[in-house]
């Protein structure tokens, strides 16, 4: 968040379990953090007396609990209920509140299966690829025939997740399943790219030769890959790797390992920024 937060209430001895993300929270701030991090988890399940009791008894927030209980008795929307918690804690900034409110509104017209897909999509967008795959797989197990229209996108997104985990053989299978259902050019290109990443050059060329339907797509893929190679050759990373090779060839061991340490530190910083954004 980048700002100082003063805790509201007390730290709970018994946590509140958020079923949708399989996580315990020990304070109202942690609950609000989950709302801001992933607004797709916010459903009517939170409008429950168990949450109100937890806020009252574990977090010593009787005033907030009384207010929420009165709202439930009178009748309120999910957005109003969540807004009261966020207002009381004063946790989110204006942009975060806008995202939360818009997400709650958009979720109101979705089926439970669509909401679960959005939950998995959120994990995917935030680089939590393994968690996204698990969520998609669980959703596919219970997806009824009337919701079969979700499958092509789910398969495509699973392919994307597995590709980011460098499991290109599995990624190719899911991209293929999605492509067979939609015929989308981009999905077909990602299918071929996954094949190209894990197959030997000989096997890949043999595959293209024996599947002429992919000939034009393979040419488009090669054009994209050549452009990507060109961008990499002009990148800072390639310059650093070239410098490392020079140090190694010259037997300058001290400088070689010094530069490696710099590369590792930069990658660690990039990773930390990625997972904390």
Describe the fold and architecture.
This protein has 14 helices and two strands; from the N terminus they run ββαααααααααααααα. By secondary structure, the chain is mainly alpha-helical. The chain folds into three domains: 16-107, no CATH class; 112-198, Tetratricopeptide repeat domain (Serine Threonine Protein Phosphatase 5, Tetratricopeptide repeat); 236-276. The radius of gyration is 25 Å and the shape is flat. Mean pLDDT is 85; it is low at 1-5.
Sum this structure up briefly:
By secondary structure, the protein is mostly helical. The chain has helices at 28-37, 49-57, 62-74, 78-89, 94-107, 112-125, 129-142, 151-164, 168-182, 185-198, 201-210, 215-233, 236-249, 253-276, and strands at 16-18, 23-25.
Distinctive features:
two-stranded antiparallel ribbon; mainly alpha; 277 residues; Serine Threonine Protein Phosphatase 5, Tetratricopeptide repeat; flat; disordered N terminus; 3 domains; 2 strands
Question: What is the topology?
Answer:
Layout: E1 16-18, E2 23-25, H1 28-37, H2 49-57, H3 62-74, H4 78-89, H5 94-107, H6 112-125, H7 129-142, H8 151-164, H9 168-182, H10 185-198, H11 201-210, H12 215-233, H13 236-249, H14 253-276
Antiparallel strand pairs: 1-2
Helix pairs in contact: 2-3, 3-4, 4-5, 6-7, 7-8, 8-9, 8-10, 9-10, 10-12, 13-14
